[in-house]
Design a protein that fits this description.
There is one protein chain. The protein is mainly α. Helices cover 81% and strands 0% of the residues. The protein has 15 helices and no strands. Helix 3 packs parallel to helix 6, helix 5 packs antiparallel against helix 6 and helix 12 packs antiparallel against helix 13. The radius of gyration is 20 Å and the shape is globular.
């Protein structure tokens, strides 16, 4: 098997972003808040590592099946970047998807059982099932596929909070002590999850606009095809404006709460969104939409990394 092609197929940068989101939730939100309030009781690191591995493996499996099912469309949309059908056979791709996804589900169930929250193991079945149906059906429907991916991105943030919440509940005295910190934790988690949702949603719609040529030839009804390039561009602009306004509101609240450094660090993200907004207004070709997609990946990363200011503030 072509190892280089496999690595490229599973989108290592995107997987690193997933793992990074979980690391930041733990070390730049939970640990600083717990440290400020002299609390303890976070889940052991080895359990957290299982969660990261399960998430990354399931995500990798999702990327593989997406390319397997898109083999004909990718011949038109990205012939120079196509892997399945050129460097890796469809049969090998299907086996790779099964092995990655099955490993992720097993690790997720093991993590749920060992953390004492076996009922939450259903999440590690729902997520890969959603990824499969996204690739098989939802991505070809207007807005449905975009929402599925955006919700899964937000869930990557929320899933840690869910497991940490139930981990704390196992020790009532620790849970009671930690309860006073839930308000600030909830605000950060909600803000982080909302940012992940909106940036992912916008990027997915941009990718639809980028892939219009191949998608339309195979009868797909993505939002870009239903609305047309001009109207979908207006929608992208509207989402970018919403992001700018929400981010400005969040920065103001951070400043008032004393997290001045994080508020200022988000200016990098804010400037990037503004630049992307002006580039969107001028956009009119597939290559230009591809550049916008890359910009949004950078925006996601810079927004995430702003949380490091909270971590370093409490070292």
């Amino acid at each position: 098997m072509n190892l280089k092609a496999v690595i490229s197929l599973v989108r290592p940068i995107n997987l690193a972003i997933m793992a990074g989101m979980l690391l930041l939730v733990r070390y730049a939100i939970f640990e600083p808040v717990f440290a400020m309030n002299h609390l303890s009781g976070l889940m052991p690191f080895w359990q957290f590592l299982l969660l990261i591995l399960a998430t990354v493996l399931i995500g990798a499996g999702g990327y593989v099946i997406n390319d397997v099912l898109d083999i004909e469309i990718d011949r038109i949309n990205k012939p120079d970047r196509q892997i399945i059908g050129k460097k890796i056979s469809v049969e090998t791709g299907n086996k790779l998807h099964f092995n990655l996804t099955a490993s992720g589900i097993v690790l997720g169930i093991a993590f749920s059982y060992l953390s004492g929250n076996i009922f939450l193991a259903i999440l590690f079945v729902i997520i890969p099932t959603s990824l499969f149906y996204y690739s098989f059906k939802y991505k070809y429907l207007p807005i449905a596929g975009n929402l599925v991916v955006a919700l899964l991105a937000a869930l990557t943030v929320i899933i840690y909070w869910l497991f940490e919440f139930y981990h704390l509940k196992k020790t009532p005295e620790v849970f009671i002590e930690a309860a006073s910190s839930f308000a600030i934790l909830n605000r950060f988690i909600l803000a982080f999850a909302s940012f992940a949702f909106l940036t992912t949603l916008t990027r997915e719609i941009i990718k639809d606009a980028e892939d219009m040529t191949g998608d339309s030839r195979f009868g797909c009804n993505t939002l870009a095809i239903v609305l047309g390039q001009k109207k979908v561009k207006y929608l992208i602009i509207a989402l970018e404006v919403v992001l700018i306004l929400l981010l400005a509101w969040f920065q103001l609240n951070l400043h008032r709460s004393g997290l001045v450094l994080m508020s200022w660090s988000l200016l990098i993200t804010q400037v990037l969104i503004v630049v992307t907004l002006f580039r969107t207004i001028k956009t009119g070709s597939n290559s230009a939409f591809r550049q916008l997609s890359l910009f949004f990946k950078i925006i996601m990363v810079t927004g995430m990394l702003s949380l490091l200011t909270v971590y370093f503030r409490n070292i």
